[in-house]
Predict the structure.
Amino acid sequence: MNISINGKETIISENSDRTVDSLLEELDVSQRLYVTVELNGEILERPAYETTPVKEGDVIEFLYFMGGGR
Amino acid sequence: MIEIPKTIHDDMITHAQEGFPLEVCGILGGAGDTVSVNYRMTNTDASNEHFMMDPKEQFAVVKELRAKGLSMLAIYHSHPETPARPSEEDIKLALTPDVSYVIVSLADAAVPVIKSFKIGSGNVEVEPIEIII
């Protein structure tokens, strides 16, 4: 399966059970509570990470929350 | 070490002064250790104690940097009334790997201070800044 992850064309194994959340886990993305995902140009609501399947040709961008305090 | 052009260094101070008393934030991009572009970002918290970037703006900047063949080198924010050192919250939320965390302090309004830090796993190291003329 071919997808784009943060601008890089990536080949991943076929897995019909793969969700956005499980993909992040496969990628060893830590602190996933603080990760924002954009799927095919739209920001994904966090509760949808576990239910949104990853499909052929998906364009996925993710980045960490950027914030702080005094 | 991070190399920052004087124009960008000065713009971060101007940004902090213009945003005072609220915290301001932004992203520095470049290649290697050398910053070449800065992006003023929206502090969606609009607070003088916290900052939070808008994810839509973050994605847009990351994509623009990538299109230019550049990388995100640093995340900066201002401390309107406190020194240029990461707070506990700054350290906890320093989640983006492999970037510098730059703080602009206006604690002494007459003498703004900019410092850069590498933060990871709760550890903080001061990083020298070289200002490029």
Q: What stands out?
A: Chain B has a mean pLDDT of 97. The beta strands of chain B are 2-5, 25-31, 34-41, 50-52, 71-79, 100-105, 113-120, 123-127, 129-132. Residues 2-132 of chain B form a domain with the Cytidine Deaminase; domain 2 fold (CATH 3.40.140.10).
